[in-house]
Design a protein that fits this description.
Keywords: Hydrolase, Protease, Viral release from host cell. It comes from Niallia nealsonii. InterPro entries: Peptidase_S78_dom, Prohead_protease. It is built from three helices and twelve strands. With 192 residues, the protein is an alpha+beta fold. The chain has one domain. A hairpin with a 2-residue loop joins strand 7 and strand 8. The longest helix is centred in the C-terminal third of the chain and has 18 residues. The radius of gyration is 18 Å and the shape is globular.
Length: 192
């Protein structure tokens, strides 16, 4: 299942370069984050080393996960990543277009300061501790895209899964919601 999470971003003064360069850290290790979902919230931690061996070969940079627009950058030509002890860092060269300039300016002014990412955890790549209500991710199989987002403080689950869960959730009456919440939590406990 593809999932989304939020992190940080900043603009870099080109210093003689004509390019619009953004540097960011879309994924951070060992930082607890509260994930909010229709069935409740839980703490999530991406463990140090979870990206070791992950597929980072074909990643797009988007604005707000909008796949209907032209990507702002793509690996390996206009965007690169590197791993360090704190997580994943990114360097992207934005296009000299109105959208590229607008995003760059908004980041430079700090109107946009966050990043989110879409990823896949393989089977056995995470563990859920019911006592602490914490999901620990030890392995990320693939990073699909990173996005510049206007509300970085709100962690998001997968867009596809979230839309499906929320539409089903909205159709349920209160007693059915409680039963569904219990069932979803039981499934989550088994899958982690």
């Amino acid at each position: 299942m593809k999932e989304l999470r939020v992190a940080e971003l900043r603009a870099v003064d080109p210093q003689g370069e004509s390019s619009l360069i953004l540097n960011g850290r879309p994924i951070v290790y060992d930082q607890p984050t509260t994930i909010k979902a229709p069935f409740g919230e839980y703490i999530e931690i991406i463990q140090r080393g979870a990206l070791d061996g992950a597929d980072l070969s074909d990643i797009r940079l988007l604005y707000n996960h909008d796949m209907n627009k032209i990507p702002l950058a793509r690996t390996p030509k206009t965007m690169s990543f590197s791993l360090d002890s704190a997580g994943l860092t990114m360097r992207a060269e934005l296009p000299d277009t109105e959208e590229g300039k607008s995003v760059y300016t908004a980041v430079k002014r700090q109107d946009l300061s966050g990043m989110s990412f879409a990823f896949k955890v393989p089977e056995g790549g995470s563990h859920f501790d019911a006592k602490t209500n914490t999901r620990s991710i030890s392995k990320i199989e693939k990073v699909y895209e990173v996005s510049i987002v206007p509300f970085p403080a709100y962690p998001q689950t997968s867009i596809e899964a979230r839309a499906t869960i929320e539409s089903t959730w909205a159709k349920l009456k209160a007693p059915e919601r409680q039963a569904a919440k219990i069932k979803v939590n039981q499934i989550l406990l088994r899958s982690f």
